[in-house]
Amino acid sequence: MIDSRQLTKRYGEKTAVDGLDFVVKPGTVTGFLGPNGAGKSTTMRMIVGLDAPTSGSVTVNGRHYARHQAPLQEVGALLEAKSIHPGRSAYNHLRALALTHGIPRSRVDEVIDLAGLGSVANQRAGAFSLGMGQRLGIAAALLGDPQTVMLDEPVNGLDPEGVLWIRNLLQALADEGRTVFVSSHLMSEMALVADHLIIVGRGRLLADTTVGDLIRKAGGDTVTVATQDPARLRDVLAGPGVEVTGRIGSEELQVTGLTAREVGLKAAEHGIALFELSARTVSLETAFMDLTRDAVEYHGSTTGLESLGRPA
Q1: What is the DSSP letter of 62?
Q2: Residue 172 in this model has a pLDDT that exceeds 90
Q3: Residue 181 CB partners (closer than 8 Å, separation 6+)
Q4: Burial category of 241 from C-beta neighbours within 10 Å (exposed 0-12, middle 13-18, buried 19 and up)
Q5: Is 61 within 8 Å of 94 (Cβ atoms)?
Q6: Please, which residues have CB within 8 angstroms of residue 211's CB and are 6 or more apart in sequence?
Q7: 53-62, 86-95, 118-127, 208-217: lowest mean pLDDT where?
Q8: Is 282 helix (H, G, I), strand (E, B) or coil?
Q9: Contact at 8 Å (CB) between 45 and 39?
Q10: What's phi and psi for 74, nearest 5 deg?
Q11: Helix and strand tally (H, E) in the chain?
Q12: What is the mean pLDDT of the chain?
């Protein structure tokens, strides 16, 4: 378990992390999301003692990282895939890490196979592609068979097979009861693999929620329905967890809390004719963008794009 209490980090006048309170629990994949500059990397660095908090604290399984007798066997972290001596082979890199913690040679062989590095284990890491470097970094994170696994952008550079491998690996680790904390900018992947989300913006906590709850708050599955008798249909659809909205005088209603099928069946049961029945699903990406709109530090511009490629 990762437990952050009022975690704060300042660099001069810049506050990178501002009073973060959150808990990452075992047995689930927790996604760590936020725009660029939100403080995600700084938070992860403080979790493993690479940066010292200005105030507040963060512990892993009840202790500060530096107080664990064998940190590599307690927390497996991938923060920078290329933080490897370029002249050292993948095998020797992992073997050197293992020797510092009394990890047997057999475990090195296990993680090499797990990460799909068997054919390149004796090659120099400096010649690895970004994807192979990611695999080596993940192998190093898993070397100590840790109860807590923390990965920063683990799918960077991976091909589709590698992305699927990571997806299945994260779920398998969570199913074993481990704490899995993953930072990513790929909302499509987070929607598939994460159960819980910690979302930050400008160093502050914006949401500590499940994927489903975040999507529901952003509109969730909204059903649009039109009928000649919207007032009667509104009464028919009313119930716990159901919200029906619509403009006065309009035949169109927006319904959340019911599927299009459920709306259609209820209308049919009461003999209400429908002119339109359609559903719109809010994606995790849309929900994330809505939540973080005011917390984005770096904005791109489309001004002048129409002139790109045109002769001067």
Answers
A1: T
A2: yes
A3: 2, 24, 30, 32, 44, 148, 149, 150, 151
A4: exposed
A5: no
A6: 31, 190, 191, 194, 195, 196, 197, 284
A7: 208-217
A8: coil
A9: no
A10: -105, -45
A11: 11, 13
A12: 91
Q: In Å, how far are 25, 57, 116, 201 from 74, measured between CA atoms?
A: 15, 18, 23, 28
Place of tokens 């499940």: 210
* 176 DSSP 8-state letter: T
Instruction: Read off the tokens for 41.
Output: 């990397």
Residue 266 phi/psi, 5-degree rounding, is -65, -40
49 phi, psi to nearest 5 deg: 75, 10
Average confidence (pLDDT) over 187-203: 94
pLDDT in tens, 152-170: 999 988 999 999 999 999 9
Q: What confidence tier does 305 reach under pLDDT thresholds 50, 70, 90?
A: low
On the question of pLDDT at 150 being above 90, the answer is yes
| Helices 260-269, 230-237: inter-axial angle, 10-degree rounding | 110
